[in-house]
Specification:
About 60% of the residues lie in helices and about 10% in strands. The chain has 23 helices and 8 strands.
Length: about 500
Amino acid sequence: MFETLQNSLASAIKTLRGKGKLTESNMREGLELVRQSLLEADVSLPVVKDFINNITEKALGEQVLRLLDPTEQLVKIVHGELTALMGPVDHSLHLKKPLTVLMLCGLQGSGKTTTCGKLGQLLVRRHLKPMLVAADLQRPAAIDQLEILAQSINVPVHTDRINKDPVKVCLDAAAKAVAQNIDVLILDTAGRLHIDSELMQQLQHIERKLHPDQVYFVVDAMTGQDAVNSAKAFNEALELDGVILTKLDGDTRGGAALSVKHITGVPIKFIGTGEMTDALEEFHPDRMAGRILGMGDMLTLIEQASEKLDKEAIAKQEEKLRKGEFTLDDFRSQMNQAKRLGSFSKLLSFIPGMGQMSQMMGEANVDADGEMRRFGGIIDSMTPAEKRNPQIVDTNRRRRIAEGAGVEEKQVNGLIRAFTPMAEMMKAMSSKNPKDRMDAMRQVQQMMQQNPTGDIKRQKGNTGKRLTADEKNQARKRREKEKKHRAKEKRK
């Protein structure tokens, strides 16, 4: 997400870094590039003007120009202003007894019904009992869609295919929810292809009768400034408590995310980042600012990992690593775990220093997720003995594995060649010694920067070449270091 804005801002800051010394003149030049970046990302013009004025006031002060590393201070200022532009955000759902009512509204095609299912899933993860309400009686398939979503996340849904009054449907659902000890009622209201008085009157009628505790406007992030304008119109009619931006994973510009809070005064509360029912995240302005500036977002990655990964499997893997064991089976298991968090390029966007990696892979026409699937196919075609010790794979074994996985023999070679240093790094990263872990992380970053796909494809013109003397020496040193570390652990 936000690739256009990320790349443009990175170029603007890189231009400033190239200066021997920052002056008021070249600082203004750099800030002009920042302004252009925001406009290209479809950020609203009034927002851009205020944003640049705030940065200029702080960046052109003596406290920046006199610093030894003023560009880093500029990044800090831009990060702070991006955070202020999109926040603050109150993530509380303001739950109350006996029932909390959440009302979702928006135009047709914004992903409103799907978001009801995602919000229901989010509440289930928080150990609450939600009920979905099919109050969209305008779109024929809306009731069917909500029933399917409710079934997929195993929560109750209230539908009424006879009654044509959405207010009556919502009131009946509220009474039913109280009787069944439901914690949160989620209303999926009707939308239109455009804003009209009939739609607004219907929503206002539901709001007056149900008195929802929170009213959320669901909007497609990819519609850019249209998203901001429609949010403003809905807020004037309903007094919104928050915005849910959908399809943010496909939004390369980011103009809506940066503009909506400033224009409407309504914060973005949640963001949709995929099609699955678990692809709804709390929106944290400071974390999003970090991702926009290529600084990563480890907190969100950790939160998602704690919710989606198999903790028992991870504990077993950590125990094996502490014993100095890491096989291709273990690597396969880790790939399966990583898939639960999303695509490979999405994971890279969370990691500091890796923000530009997905761009590099795109420019090289590299399908990272496809490569990882090929890795899995190769490993699945191996025998247990070959997975434990890939060095036993000879010509005949390699041919058999390649045929079984549907790949070329050189790709089997590439995986085996890459696995040895990978295993050493994994063992080092599980070490109790902080220095060993930091060294391993640096090796991972260097490896990724040299070849994002993990060496299954050699650099052009270098296919099949033997290791250089320097590479052999480095590998030998890594093996000796690991041997000393294992001996030290045994003495403990």
